[in-house]
Amino acid sequence: MKFALAQLGNFKMPYSYDEELDLSEELNGFEDILSLDTCYVHTMIKDRGENTWLCEFKIKIRLTLQDSVSLDEIAYDIDVKSEEIFTKDESIEDATIIEGLTLDTREAIISAILENKPASQSSYEFDDESEEDEEEEEKINPAFASLKDLL
User: Fold this and answer.
1) What pairing do the DSSP bridges indicate for beta strands 52-66 and 33-36?
2) How far is the C-alpha of 35 from the C-alpha of 9, rounded, in Å?
3) 74: helix, coil or strand?
4) Which terminus has fewer CB within 10 Å in the chain: N or C?
5) Distances (CA, A) of 46 to 43, 55, 83
6) Cis ω on the peptide bond leading into residue 142 (within 30° of 0)?
7) Quick count: other Cβ atoms within 10 Å of Cβ 99?
8) What is the pLDDT of residues 100-137, one digit of tens each?
9) Between β-strands 96-97 and 102-104, what pairing exists: parallel, antiparallel or unpaired?
10) 78 pairs with which residues across the strands?
11) What is the pTM of this model?
């Protein structure tokens, strides 16, 4: 959502709202994201000083990802909390600098989704070969059995 900075000054803080976002256009370029549902976001904005706000997000979205092994479709739910500081003050570290006169939360929401999306996803289960390796190590050649006691 976009807010004019003058508009934020008129809100009683903390200010919260819910919104539904269609992010398909922004997330369309990621080849492992086959489709996505509507994104549900609850946002709470808190005043943190002159031209500085903390936005706390509760984000829920279902992505349909491509299985990295079988290439089948896999549903992946993201239900995450995230927060971002927005400010006009360039001296504040780890904050999103507000360009112009509008605070726009959309990019922060997209970033939170991408940070919580797995790099690769697979429903394929691999056999654990480590058990076989342990069994092979326990088998000792009888010719070397007496050397075992030296260790």
Assistant:
1) antiparallel
2) 38
3) strand
4) C
5) 10, 6, 11
6) no
7) 8
8) 899 999 999 999 999 998 887 777 665 555 555 555 55
9) unpaired
10) 61
11) 0.76
